[in-house]
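Homework help board

Subject: predicted structure for assignment chain

Our instructor gave us this sequence and asked us to write out the predicted structure in token form, then describe one feature. I got the tokens but I'm not sure how to describe them. Can anyone check?
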Amino acid sequence: MEEINRKVRIALPSKGLLAEGSRLLLADVGLPIYNPNPRQYIATIPLLPGLEVIFQRPGDIVISVRDGSVDFGITGRDIYLEKKDTNGKILELHNQLGFGQCTLNVIIPEDWVEINSMEDLQRLQRSLGRPLKVATKFPNLAQKFFSSEIEIPIKVIRAEGALEIAPTVGYADLIVDLVSTGTTLRDNRLRNLPGGKILDAEACLIANRERLKNNSDTLKIATQLLEMIGAHLRGKRNLAVFANVRANSREEISKKIFQQKVIGGLQGPTVSPIITRDSSTFFAIHIVVRKDELHKAIGELREIGGSGVVVSPVNYIFEEEPQEIIDMMTALEDK
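My token output:
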């Protein structure tokens, strides 16, 4: 039950890779957690004195945000989608925090050599004349997938702990589970079913909708979190590139840049004159390019005569109106 006049709260995973990733993310955006006693399940963020940090299991975080006892939570998107219910009490503020990546998959025994698609699985079910027994920690997502993607009757077997043994001992025909590297599957003679990927997931930031709408402190902190996290994640995807280019004028070099596909920058390049020893005409350009387009950017810079290229990481890219905040405000107006 929601407490009256309590501090704004954010719940973070108490252990595991999600816990480590959450702490690192907040530290990277300049909001380190102060938790001198690791046995305590309450902590603070000194730069956000109005915010209280609590540590919970990832599944409990979704429930706490849903019932309003916690304002915000960082958890796995797979867990959020499984436990969020359909009442709209939870608002997903950011669905790609950059860590905890995995996929939720239909997983079958390795020796089912003739089963290589969902259609093959459907034919198997029909030949058995009964629903397929599916062991999973994600009954809602599994049931939805098998009933909407391709209609295959299943009997969900809720399970905790290691699921990989289920087909071997016979209490399930197959499993639906998270996969990151696939090593555990191979060790247990299992494999992903082609076409059986239910979703891609990673860590996400969620919030209680009513607290955002009715508590100004909650909305203020949501804006701060989205501003810093969004700017940091945009920065991580990009690189700052500096280069010297011989040209007669800013206009000449700008025209050459805009004829290329990658090196146009965010709104455009920064072009500044260079004071040279021999009075030759050079300009320094500064652009921001995506990391996955750096190779193309270097090639385009060479095409326009670029030299002395320097590449640096980008810590933050702050936008005039961050899309994450626009999306949040729009979602709050919808309901």
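Reply (TA_rk): Your tokens look well-formed. For the description, you could write something like this. The domain at 102-200 is CATH 3.40.190.10 (D-Maltodextrin-Binding Protein; domain 2). That's the kind of observation they're looking for.
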